[in-house]
Amino acid sequence: MNGKLLGAVAVVLLAAAFSLGCLGQNGNNGSGGGGGGGYDVAMQGIAYQPAELTVPAGTTVTWKNLDSVTHDVTSTDGNFTSSGNLNNGDTYQVTFDQPGTYSYHCVHHPGMNGTITVT
To answer: What integer best gives the mean pLDDT of the chain?
Structure first.
């Protein structure tokens, strides 16, 4: 294989490993603070995966950029601190202590939106 093809295969395998190995049922990876454990959201394919997530109060959500382009996690209504730019491999965490609906988006990619519902 040439170098470019090998690199592309490696990216696909890493993305699959992250999706299958790190994420359990409903994205729960059992890490994070608070009584709710932790959940992961991948930034991949110019999308948040999953785009909608329901978690118990006290849950830490971790976003990880798996794309080769810059993304961010920007609170639509200012209810949590935004991440700033996240490059490939970067992560960002927020602990959601209060029930409610938290909408967010990527300022770099219109249409890249997500919602965290805290119960």
So the answer is: 80
